[in-house]
Request: fold
Amino acid sequence: MSKPPKLSLAAIVASASPPARSSAAPRPQGAEIVALTLAPPAPRQAATLKQRARQMSVYLEPPVYDQVRDLAFAERTKMHALILEGLDLLFKQRGARSIAQLTETRSR
Reply:
């Protein structure tokens, strides 16, 4: 018995594609060529904080973590907001630009 012939990629593609239509073939009566126009791209929505920001891990001793959590609970706010407030105070103390100033220049 002889081996079956090896198939080439070109042979597989040629057998899978439909035969090409000749341009000289007559069109059916009433047929017309229609140009499709693409809709303009949708406006980009503002990215969420999670998409814009960089993540940073902070390791806190349990009593420190508990105190920040308790303050957030008492003030009905999030721990994240309190930590940002603390960073803002640090920037002010050191003479650096505030978070509002930093984000304002970035959005221009």
About this structure: The chain has a mean pLDDT of 84. Residues 51 and 88 are 22 Å apart (CA to CA). The radius of gyration is 33 Å. Residues 62-107 form one domain.
